[in-house]
Amino acid sequence: MKLSLNNEYEIEDLRRQLSSMSEDFEVSMILKGREKKFELEGTLTGDEVLKLLEERCNAIHIGSQKDEMTGVQNHVYFWKRVQTIDRSEVLPVAVIMFNINDWKFFHDNFGEAESDRLIRLVAETILSEAKPEYAVGRVDGDVFGVLIPKAEEGEAENFVSLVKYGLNSVDDPVLAPSAAAGIVKKTNIYQNIADLWSDAEYNMLEDKFRIKNAPGYRERLEHGL
């Protein structure tokens, strides 16, 4: 039996075929994931063949949602989540934009590896404070978006404070991570989150100005030089 499956419907067709077969299968398979390569050779039952193929399809599906560098939702999937939340008419929704402060400074002075590490560190900090129902995505190189459906009073502000505290607490010989944040709220069903994004950006830029002009910011930024 030669297998070439592209989607869940083809797997369902295969399941029906294998359910009527009792014999084992001689299998030689190479399954390549984003991070792993599985090489199998031997005798497998129909159920075992199906399990392996389903695991592979799940890996492809999950991989299509995730940003490879950080593990948060990628740009495309994040905006799909925006559309889904808009259609659900859930209210209120807190819309948060995070932008890494002085990412270019670290890239120019310490190179790509360290500036990438900074992006991953910020993503990890955001994820560590996010609840399971939050949508967290990397929407641009050094920009992250967070959606909080049914946000309680003060929840978004508290979340942002925890993320900033976590970043400012990092003790690293090179990096001095910090991020500016802008928050807006969707409060009626006729608003679209995409239309509110520019307001979040405006609020983020105001926050960035305050942070970068605060006493001690420059000294912390340059401590690794």
Your description of this structure?
The chain is of the alpha+beta class. The protein has 2 domains: 58 residues, no CATH class; 147 residues, Alpha-Beta Plaits (2-Layer Sandwich). 49% of the residues lie in helices and 20% in strands. The chain has 8 helices and 6 strands, in the order H-E-E-H-H-E-H-H-E-E-H-E-H-H. A 4-stranded antiparallel beta sheet has the order 4-5-3-6, with helices on both faces. Strand 1 and strand 2 form a beta hairpin. Helix 1 packs antiparallel against helix 2 and helix 4 packs antiparallel against helix 5. The longest helix has 20 residues. The N terminus is likely disordered.
**C-alpha Rg (nearest Å):** 23 Å
Discrete helix count = 8
Assign the CATH class of the largest domain: Alpha Beta
Q: Order the strands across the largest sheet as they lie in space.
A: 4-5-3-6
Low-pLDDT ranges: 1-9, 31-38, 59-63
In short:
The protein has eight helices and six strands. It has 225 residues and is α+β, with helices and mostly antiparallel strands. Helix 5 packs antiparallel against helix 6.
Describe the secondary structure blueprint for this structure.
Elements: H1 8-19, E1 25-32, E2 37-44, H2 46-65, H3 75-88, E3 93-100, H4 103-110, H5 112-129, E4 135-140, E5 143-149, H6 155-168, E6 179-186, H7 193-212, H8 217-221
Antiparallel strand pairs: 1-2, 3-5, 3-6, 4-5
